Amino acid sequence: MTTPHVAPRRGALLLLAATQLLLITDTAIVNVALPSVGEDLGSGSADLSWVANAYLIAFGGLLLLGGRAADLLGHRRVFLGGLGVLAVASAAGGLAPGADALVAARAAQGAGAALAASAAFALLLLLFPDGPARHRALGAFAAMGGLGGVLGTVLGGVLTDLLGWRSTFWLNVLLAAVLALLALRVLDGRPGRLRPGGLDLAGATTATAGLGLLAYALVGAAETGWLSARTLTTGGAGVALLLAFAAVETRAAAPLVPPAVLARPALRTANALAALAQTTLFPMFFLVSLHLQSVLGYGPLGGGLGLLPLSLVVVAVAPQTGRIIFRIGLHRATTLGFVLLCAGTLWLALALTPDGTFASTVLAPSLLIGAALPLVMVTTNVAATAEAAAEETGLASGLVNTSQQFGSVLGLAVLVAVAAGRTEAVDAARATAETAGHRAALLTGAASAALAALLSVRLHLPKPAPTPVP
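The structure corresponding to this sequence follows.
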């Protein structure tokens, strides 16, 4: 078993939460810097889109493998390895002479981030056993996620304006090095324990390739079309490899994902809910920033700061989620979170106007969404990891992180397609047409949250077995 002895736990939690903040912030920073990247490297919009997409594909494809590798090879070892890959890849990005080199560096960044994220979440589960302490720790992670998007947008704008886009990559190098040095001090370095049969190489290969191809198909669908040959071919190949992975796991001596784990009803429901939550939340951040900039006329920095009130609510509510779960129960807290998310997203969709202001259209509904975000994130993570044994923490981490990542990618692909289709169908001024598109996309997101609210009623953890009387 790989349970680390960390002293103090508070210091380890701060380190792991800071890692979560870095990984969330990194995505937003680079997105803000993309226009400057295009001007400097002479890249078109297609090349720029793959600077972002390469990261998402590698990250989504390697989360499951990263989580299981942490169980088998040692959590701190994989955590440090992920930070090392992230730092080296970020340096390569800072030195990239052209778009192709930058895309390759971003893919390597995604691989490092997947290893670090999976190991960090697994370490948190080991440090804080199921119960109020874990709920508080997961609340801290949710708060960092809420802050990361806004902080990344602000930092990206400031650094790009003052020091150029390459400085956003060198910041990663510095922060990853600092986190690695701190990890050597506060995290125990006990090795993992390989089971008989070692690492399931066939399972690892089919799962990683299948997830990577599926992510590639989803992020490219907006560019080439959902029914294009590339989307159907890569998506079909990804599904075929995942089916092969399922077959491999039933025969492997030491499966990457033991079938008995996936047989747990609460785990399956929680992972589906985690994916549905991100299907609504991730594109919402993108659409709000886009509406503020392209319709209401705010600059990139203003578009990012428009999400600051939401983030402050997340930070305020996240530490209280444990108390809410204790008072009303896990499945009621989950349902409450998704009801609030559905209501907030619906309100936001109906409030959007082409001639409004931030205060009149975005502010109030975004505060409601800010209250919902930590509830849905913490409760789904609690449910997805509650039954995990100590030697399964990396696996549980990889599964729920993969669900969230693919929910994000699928949600962004679908909602952006809905927005574009509705915008093109509206014969009106540009601002009015774009508002119609954003509203249609957000209504789709609200429907996803409503589906999750209905599904959450089925979320029940098994009761612990009674202690035998001696």
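Residues 265-457 form a domain with the Growth Hormone; Chain: A; fold (CATH 1.20.1250.20).
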